[in-house]
Amino acid sequence: MENLSLSTGNETTAVVASFRVSMPSRWLAEGHSPSGVRPVEPVTLRFPANYPLCAPSLELRNDFSRSHPHINPGPEDDPPVPCVVEGSLTELLHASGLESVLNQISAWLDNAANGTLIDPKQGWEPVRRDTLTHVICADAGVLYGRTDGQERPWFVGCNYWYERDKPPGILIALGSESFPLARDTLGRLMRHGDSPNGIALGQSLGLVAGPAKGPDGSLPVCCDYLPESVATLADLRQRAAAYGCAAALNTGLKLLRDRLLEASTTARKDYPLVLPIVLLAKRPFPLIGTESPIELIPYVVSTPISDFCANGDAVPVEPASHVHTLSRNLLRRLSGVEDMKTPKPWTLLGAGSLGSNVAISLGRMGDGPSVTVDNDYFSPHNAARHALLPDNASGMGLLGNKAFALQQALLCLAQNTEALSAHVLDVLADPKLLKKAVPRNAWAVVNATASLAVRDALMEAAPKLHAPVIEAAIWGRGAAATLLVESTDGNPNVGDMVAALYERARSDSALSNALLPGGASHALIETGQGCRSSTMAMPDAVVSQFASAMSLAIADLRRDGLPMATGHTWIGLRQGIQVQWQQIVVQPSERIKVEASPWTIRIGADAHQAISEDINRFPGVETGGVLMGRISEATHTFYVTGIVPAPESSVRRADCFILETKGLKRAVERYSEETAGALYCLGTWHSHLTPSGPSALDRQTAEVLKEWRVAPSVMLIRHPSGYQASITEGIWQ
């Protein structure tokens, strides 16, 4: 920067700074670069009255060539305004100071002189339109498809919205379906109305004009960067000619004017016409952030129909900016999530507070559930922590069925989810409903019901699900949360992981306090006279805090794949406003099917290791102990999580094992008390030195524990070839 000159106005202070531009000596001798940049360029910085709160605006000399990228749109008779930074100049000022702004101006001028404002490796920089007030929302992919090389216009429907009493700023949603402009089209399509709150709403049509093929059959490539200066239809026709789409534009404008003259709406000379026009230009390489070389260059005509028909090329035209139509792919890009062309469907069971939060979070990533199952309705008390808001139009604070309410919310996020209003247990028991709820190609089933019955029903239905289960749950009034992910082959399953979770709590006091609180984790909350609901009392912020982490974990699993040989457990423990998450890999369980019995025994990896270690501790003799864990009556499954070693005074010989009972009952009770009764005695185990079944003495030993239990008991034998088991029925069997 060489020198400064200062002038002061009522609202701004203008400083003209001269910047020395880096260029070769040959250009210095000529007095300018091939792109017209001079060795010394004056730049006007207009400092607003509230500087340094806001950055100065920038202006180049009036005759500075506008055929450069990164020049903001503006009238031809105004000084060109460069865009010297990606983002906000004010934010740069606050982040790095005025010196950084001046450095950006200098770098911009150097690049302009060298013709490197556009980097082909980065992509073609679209014409700057970020300061414009009119916005056209359109599906870029559909518009790219309009570049078929035919000299014809494309007409599509559109909706528009603007505030009558504020400066012009029309928001337009462009449709995707094209149609011929027949004589009766305008009468059916064009609508305009004003709402009491000052909003003008209407329907109209849009015109899309693409380039025509050249003699060689290819689309013309526009390599010139043309800054936005279109102000009339005459200007627009010239610009369309430069992009190679004049024929389509001119044909479309003539056809529209003819149809408007024929239509009855011309009886009202002041009837408004809002006409979005999109020109399509092919660039020499793909645009920044896209894989397409097609640039969308939108405009808006907003004028009474009579003026459009009578004033010809003098009709005003205003440039507009383009935003992408809401779509799954757009949400995924904005969330930084890898795009999936055909994502596998997943099913959500339970659209309550946790389920709805997870569904909406993933929906905002473009990956909401394909099916939602819930038969409950949105009650006023659900508003305390549900992801959806009640509809108070009726004054009742209701929202109907939760599954359908979630379906409508996801529809607003451009995603279709099927709502199934049925009890989850009924769905899992009915083959037809199950097939509807969980399609055969389903990726996973996410259970957010917080129902123990649903958990058991899911494990019972596992052979028919063809999809692993992910269980999301919050414990202890928001003290902890867990996300359990089954292996794709069902081993370990959710039952294994829940049992392992309780076993882990025995040696983790923080986890134990959250999972096994002294009082009930559910409290009866008054939700209406004569009606109580058993639910946890916690704020929505806690649910959202846990749900957001769960959603990220599920999104990672969607990207990276589900675990194939192990299960994954995420445990989140909350302390104040912080949540500490840990991920645990759960190894497969040993599975033993009891012959001539509906019962199955699943031995967790830790319990299997403990049994093996005890056998190694007593080589050459039989040994044993007591099995601890959980039992599922619904699925006829024993979940073995650990063992209580046999007292040292037990008899261990090569031909038999006799369990000493003195002090054993207290040891078993103490083990169970450490988990608040979540884990308990399941039976006994002992080893054989050779593959063989239970002896008479073994059966006698098993009877010792029967009197301690009313539920069935297991007698497990570990021998060199594996496990063998028998079941002793409980009192109620």
Automatic annotation (TrEMBL):
UniProt domain THIF-type NAD/FAD binding fold: residue ranges: 346-488
Gene3D superfamilies: Cytidine Deaminase, domain 2, NAD(P)-binding Rossmann-like Domain
Alphabetical UniProt keywords: Hydrolase, Metal-binding, Metalloprotease, Protease, Zinc
Annotated ranges, domain JAB: 606-706
Keyword Protease recorded: yes
Classification via Pfam families: Prok-E2_A, Prok-JAB, ThiF
Name used for this protein in its record: JAB domain-containing protein
Organism: Marichromatium bheemlicum
Lineage, top ranks: Bacteria, Pseudomonadati, Pseudomonadota, Gammaproteobacteria, Chromatiales
